Amino acid sequence: MGDLLSGFFTVWFVIGIGWLLAQFRVLDAHGQRALSQVSFWVGLPALLFGSLRQADLERIFSLNVIVSLLAIFITLAVYLVLVSTIWQRDAGHKVIGGFASCYVNANNMGLPIAAYVLHDTSWVAPILLIQVVFLQPVGLSILDALNARKHGHSTSMMRNVTLPLRNPMTIGVIAGLVVNLTGLRLPELMTATLDLVGGIAVPAMLIAFGIALRTGPLPGHGNLGETVAISVLKVLVQPLLAFVLARFVFNLDPVTTLAVTVMAGLPTAQNVFIFAMRGEESVHLARDAIFITSFASIPAVTAMAALAQAF
Fold first, then answer.
1. Does residue 248 fall inside a structural domain?
2. What pTM was estimated for this model as a whole?
3. Domain range holding 292?
4. Distance (Å, whole) CA 100 – CA 131
5. Which DSSP symbol is given to 286?
């Protein structure tokens, strides 16, 4: 458990650096946006490529993927019903809220937890693939189309259909899978360079998030009820769904049940904040959900791990 807490401590320490940089006026909202853009266009594609080119594909394409997929989309469906009937938000807000309710922090939270709690980092790959191949392209395509319309840019069916293929993170995933499937051996100079560039992503995201915490309003700005509901869906409903599906529907073994449960209980990913910044949509909602779930997930992941091991 100490290793689990140390992973969370590392994340919040880097977020604290961003907060201090804003507090002492070293960086402001412009610096926050620059870090977000560098992470989105440079760091994350390299990081995703590096992760997937070495992933265990047998694990990616197994029953645990179906469990994770169902847990994500049932949670998303619950949020969409709530946001459409109770809060009645617009399409862009629904995209960010939907991301916040089910898009897990598979990189900088998932990797250390998989390493220290599950003792196998490859458990991150399936949920990472689901999010980047399914959730991310659809959500970002909608945001890009809405943003283009907002600024008076012309859109076309062909442009919207090809948006996922022009998304840098989707390209990183596809390239990583191609290298993995073909067994292509890349020059060490190339892989070392990509690993170095990929190392930008997580610190840049966390520092940008820390700046947002200092420069923006405290969590709770706007609809507190919706933010709390999203947080409950993320840290309680999604992992409980994963556990029930894994244990009682698909009868997965205890190790796999523990893995999918713990992965589903991870907090909302910092990527959601990057998506909100890029789409200029519901930035405070994304930030608040990440803030709350990052704290709430510590006891939630612990409880879910104990529940999975008990059964």
1. yes
2. 0.80
3. 59-185+220-310
4. 12
5. H
